[in-house]
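Quick illustration, no need to memorize.
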Amino acid sequence: MSIRQLELLGTPGCHLCDLAEALIAGCLDLSQVEVELIDIAQNDDLIARYGIKIPVLRCPKSQAELCWPFDELAVKAF
């Protein structure tokens, strides 16, 4: 079984990003899902695209996105 890859886009010091990270860690089986934290502050294109949307959970394979606010049910369904 392969591990599913997800990305959490945000910035350091963002309280909503911290909440999203804790929510994801608490509701997903991290032995089956790998979540890479992406700091949008390091990329002007990401800032322009996600600056007011973060945190955003994204699947790099399908490019599907789950924008904040999301809850446990939404994360599991995603």
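The radius of gyration is 12 Å.
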